[in-house]
């Protein structure tokens, strides 16, 4: 039996293909197979970011992740995907799994590593997260000096969001999507909404940058983030 | 008078030159002048990461940042450096300022932007932070699902560190350096030290990865970070 191939978790950055790292590009060009998550319609943002460097001869392994609230369908998708990837690894092939942003920062690579990490060697190539990209677009620091910076998932309850935001020097609320009105309500109650900016699809083709108080009352896409900081907003 | 040149804040990543982005490389190769911070001995980690892509004909602008606790000498260094950079911008030259990690994530570019942003156009190119690199080396997620992730500067008081770490799902304590024993004491009091790992110079030549309880009682370098997470440590 061949030695196991290696599984690489590869961060491809927030959206602009120019924010791929040299290491990610070299790896993607050299690996036997490339896996990535796709949404319900079969589109993969991670693959689209790296499209220009995926060789035509690469084996591709899409993992169809259902966009539903329940966790079971997602678990089944990663069970199935990890079985397919394990087949390649067992044959001595090296496989890369593409992640938007960084693989270990709320990335779905974590679910693959949990299933494959005991039997197969794993290496992670860090990537540019959307947070730095959002700050760049808003023209404000994420955090400076001795400020505490908090990353807060928007699906948390309004009470949890209030607790975290009330005492944060600076914060990013991630995965905003359909939770926007709840988050804006919390920010208004804390008198922070006027200091907050929303960035959707940072550095990607559909990028938008909007002060939170200027956002109309309708749905936002999944890849949106709100940054809010108590310190001097002008750098 | 010429139109102002543009000031670029360029993230060069945590240490491995292969973690430069394509965009950072292209910009560094094309700009008229490259600025960067240096420590007291004149060494610049940011410059060393990007050394292979800085053209021989680039004007270089080192900014000597004194490694002292007081803020005034640092302010004077950035006052002086921003004057020199402004001279190039006023002559219509484009200038890049290299930052380890990401320019807006505790980066010294924030100080330059505060001084130059009103009169000169600014663009920030985000970079890979050390946090993703530290997680990659420790083989654990920074954060997953709906966990709150906190970034906590080690110079804070033991009381502040305790407050932040006591209620964090997952945290990175940054700028550990000479504050290591204080941080370890707080982690021990919270029964978290056994779950914490220290990474120094992640992905750089002097990289070390050590469980916090295995660190000997002596000083650590500046570029060190402690990660601690309550969730499943094995992915």
In CATH, the architecture of the largest domain in chain A is 3-Layer(aba) Sandwich
Kindly provide the radius of gyration of chain A, computed on alpha-carbon positions and rounded to a whole number of angstroms. Answer: 19 Å
CATH class descriptor name of the largest domain in chain A? Alpha Beta
Let me know the average pLDDT of chain A.
Answer: 92
The interface involving the most residues is between: A-B, 59 and 59 residues
Q: From N to C, what is the helix and strand string of chain A?
A: EHEHEHEHEHEHEHEEE
CATH superfamily annotation of the largest domain in chain A:
Tetrapyrrole methylase, N-terminal domain
For the termini of chain A, the CA-CA separation is 58 Å
Helix content of chain A: 25-40%
Strand tally of chain A: 10
For the largest sheet of chain A, list the strands in their spatial order.
3-2-4-1-5
How much of the sequence lies in strands of chain A comes to: 15-25%
Unreliable residue stretches of chain A = none
């Amino acid at each position: 039996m061949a030695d196991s191939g290696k599984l690489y978790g590869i961060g491809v950055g927030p959206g602009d293909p120019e924010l791929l790292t040299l290491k990610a590009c070299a790896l993607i060009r050299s690996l036997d197979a490339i896996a990535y998550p796709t949404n319900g319609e079969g589109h993969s943002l991670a693959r689209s970011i790296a499209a220009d460097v995926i060789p035509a001869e690469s084996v591709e392994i899409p993992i169809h992740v259902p966009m539903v609230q329940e966790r079971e369908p997602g678990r089944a998708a990663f069970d199935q995907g990890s079985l397919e990837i394990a087949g390649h690894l067992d044959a001595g092939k090296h496989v890369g799994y593409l992640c938007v942003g960084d693989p270990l920062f709320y990335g779905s690579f974590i679910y693959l590593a949990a299933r494959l990490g005991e039997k197969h060697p794993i290496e992670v190539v860090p990537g540019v997260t959307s947070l730095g990209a959002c700050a760049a677009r808003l023209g404000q620091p994420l955090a400076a000096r001795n400020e505490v910076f908090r990353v807060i998932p928007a699906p948390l309850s309004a009470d949890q969001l209030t607790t975290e935001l009330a005492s944060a020097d600076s914060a990013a609320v991630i995965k905003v999507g359909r939770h926007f009105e709840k988050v804006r309500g919390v920010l208004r109650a804390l008198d922070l909404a006027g200091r907050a900016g929303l960035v959707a699809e940072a550095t990607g083709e559909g990028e938008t940058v909007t002060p939170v108080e200027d956002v109309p009352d309708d749905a936002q896409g999944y890849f949106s983030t709100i940054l809010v900081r108590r310190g001097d907003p002008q750098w």
